[in-house]
Amino acid sequence: MNRIFAWAGAMLALALAVAVPASHAAGYPDRPIRIIVPYPPGDLADVITRLVGNDMSQELGQSIVVENHPGASGLIGLQLAARAEPDGYTLVMGQMGAVVVAPLTNDWPIDVRKALAPVALAYTNYMMLVAKPDFPAKTLPDLIAYSKAHPGSVRVGTNGEGGFPHLSMELLKEKAGFDFTNIPYKGSTQIMSDLMSGRVELTVFGYSGLYPYVQDGRLMALGVTGRERAPNAPNIPTFGESVPGYEALGWFGLFAPTGTPADVVAKVNKALNKAVGDPQVQVQAQRLGLDPATGTPAQFAKVWQDDYAKWGGTIGNLGLEKKK
What we know:
Elements: H1 2-16, E1 33-37, H2 44-60, E2 64-68, H3 75-82, E3 90-95, H4 96-105, H5 112-115, E4 116-125, E5 127-131, H6 140-149, E6 155-158, H7 164-176, E7 181-184, H8 188-197, E8 202-206, H9 207-215, E9 220-224, E10 250-257, H10 262-277, H11 279-287, E11 290-292, H12 297-318
Parallel strand pairs: 1-2, 1-3, 6-7, 6-8
Antiparallel strand pairs: 3-10, 4-10, 4-11, 5-8, 5-9
Helix pairs in contact: 1-12, 2-10, 4-12
């Protein structure tokens, strides 16, 4: 854990460093910029990149080329970006699971904390906990009480052991004593099939993937993991309303290879912030369950370091940290 905080301090100091007088950014960009997405086409990270890419292209005066390089929990795309020339012409859209959770639980050939530099945080996103309408507990407090009265009987389908949905339930266990059995799956299709057939009682994953089921009455929402209620579903409470201090937010943001000039980073940061603030983009993002979370590279670095410490603690408590 000490190594986490040592890295955090160094990371923040780097992000807060005063940029040298603008020299690199004067002619930047003078050719297309590629943004690597370490997930397949259609994944939320891919949708986000394409959503903001058009506005970024207009602001920067060059085209944005999106390249999908999926595989190995994001490692393939992140590694490709990390090994690129640090000149601002290769960026990568990272998400919290890939740059925090996966490096903590997998023995990767690169250290993303050293290989990548935070450029701009774009969005946070939250998850939704759902059950079939006939499940006995109708609210999160009722669910917690039910789980304690029926230990071991509440099965939660997640996308795998140590994945963000699983960790979000472990955090609920830490803070409120929620008793559950994690049932790991390789994909959401099988989770939904087993939820509907009663092989698991609950599932938790991205809001945008579950809300249509709640809207048409096939599923019942017990809560969302964000700071605030979803604008499109204000009747669904947050976990934090009944479990003080609870928050489990994912996020998406741009990274560059370490060594990318600070003035170039600042230019990309400004372009992404402007894109996220576009009213038309905001409408589409809201439909996806995304909250704008723009700021400076230093602020993004702080979010990264805080989540690395927070989830590193939970992962360590579960014994899921990578073995040296």
